[in-house]
TrEMBL record:
Pfam families: MFS_1. This is MFS transporter. Gene3D superfamilies: MFS general substrate transporter like domains. PROSITE patterns: MFS. The lineage of its organism: Bacteria, Pseudomonadati, Pseudomonadota, Betaproteobacteria, Burkholderiales.
Length: 400
């Protein structure tokens, strides 16, 4: 890497690219109903639309993202995006359940290119500004996640769900060619075989306490985030709020304000405040679920509080994701892609648990039980953070 730091234009490009790539994972979440009806998928199996995308993404995180430590990165990103675009085309033209579910799995698999782009931003950055750079790129990623659902709903309402996926295919294809033109080549120094590369993932997990701890923190936060965005649309559509699909889309748009926490967290990490910033992020997660329970009132007041809760929770998730990536990216360039792949795979597993548990809790025990469950995810992570704080406190006493 040269002594020159990454340019603002390159940061903007990488942030925009990650957002547009990762959005492909989430378009289907608000379109499960119309997709199921159109492809003949039974209501009982409709959840496979989202589940298979997540499974594909987790497989890609574990088996494709580590290749960023082995193969030339620009070509790997370009190839992954071409594949993703092809799978989005398959989704757009799907007329049967098996066609769409195959496409869903493929979209998840190819979209992990975003998690090769993020370490690329870290490679291009100087150590002193790496946290801020990663924070800005992750802001783009989070905006992609948050904007994808309302955008899909609004476009599908105006046209059809087929148009959503056809448009996404063109967008991802454009991103692929822009990145190929703008990114520098990056050839890792590794010359080990792929089987040895994969075998090293388990060793990295066992030998890297920072990775295990950061993954645990974010599994809690991302689990609660997935739970919130699984059950809240159901609550908003219920007789308590009577929001339309467009109203729910607007609610989701407002929630994206939480992404502003990413660059702030990156700056705090660069200044050495990761420990306390992590506590603040986890506490925001707890507050996000406490607010709707502690502030009763009229429908409008309750809706306003729920909007605030979504912003607070999203701020916690955005901040903690950056703090985690900043910490693991500091462990060495030669293992950066593998660490990132394991990190994301572990906390995405937390997200899958949160989403599945949230739907079941809400259906069987109601809204307040779902809120308590989401709060518990973050409270457990916060308790785990206390052990890190106590360790740091005892080390300072030894030094004194």
């Amino acid at each position: 890497m040269s002594n020159k730091d990454i340019s603002p234009g390159m940061v903007t490009l990488l942030a925009s690219a990650t957002g547009l790539i990762v959005a492909s994972l989430y378009y289907a979440q608000t379109l499960v109903g119309p997709i199921s009806a159109s492809t003949g998928l039974s209501p009982a199996a409709a959840g496979l639309i989202v589940t298979l995308t997540q499974i594909g993404y987790c497989i890609g995180l574990l088996f494709i993202v580590p290749l960023g430590d082995l193969l030339e990165n620009r070509r790997l990103i370009f190839t992954g995006l071409l594949f993703t675009s092809a799978m989005l085309v398959l989704a757009a033209i799907s007329s049967s359940a098996w066609m769409f579910l195959t496409a869903a799995l493929g979209i998840g698999l190819g979209s992990v290119a975003a998690q090769i782009v993020v370490p690329f931003a870290a490679h291009l950055s100087q150590e002193a500004t790496r946290g801020v750079t990663v924070g800005k790129v992750v802001s783009g990623l989070l905006l992609g996640i948050m904007l994808s659902r309302p955008a899909a709903s609004l476009i599908a309402d105006a046209t059809s769900w087929h148009v959503v996926f056809a448009g996404a295919a063109l967008v991802v294809l454009a991103v692929a060619f822009v990145l190929r033109a703008k990114l520098p080549e990056r050839m890792p120094n590794h010359h080990i075989s792929y089987p040895k590369l994969m075998a090293s993932l388990w060793q990295l997990f066992l030998q890297t306490p920072v990775l295990r701890r950061r993954a645990a923190y974010h599994a809690g936060l991302f689990g609660s985030f997935s739970l919130f965005w699984t059950v809240t649309p159901l609550m908003l559509a219920s007789p308590a709020f009577h929001l339309s699909q467009t109203g729910i889309a607007i609610f989701a748009l407002v929630g994206m304000a939480g992404a502003v926490a990413s660059p702030i967290a990156g700056k705090l990490a660069d200044q050495g405040h990761t420990l306390m910033a992590t506590a603040a992020a986890l506490l925001l997660g707890v507050i996000g679920f406490a607010l709707p329970m502690l502030v009763p009132g009229s429908r409008n007041v309750a809706l306003g509080v729920l909007v605030l809760a979504s912003i607070v929770l999203d701020m916690g998730v955005a901040a903690n994701l950056v703090l985690g990536q900043r910490a693991i990216f500091s462990l060495g360039a030669e293992v950066r892609s593998r660490l990132n792949g394991v990190y994301f795979a572990l906390f995405f597993a937390g997200g899958a648990i949160g989403s599945a548990l949230g739907g079941w809790i809400y259906a069987t025990h109601g809204w307040h039980a779902a809120l308590l469950t989401g709060m518990a995810f973050n409270a457990i992570a916060l308790l785990y953070w206390v052990s890190e704080y106590l360790t740091h406190a005892s080390q300072r006493k030894v030094v004194v």
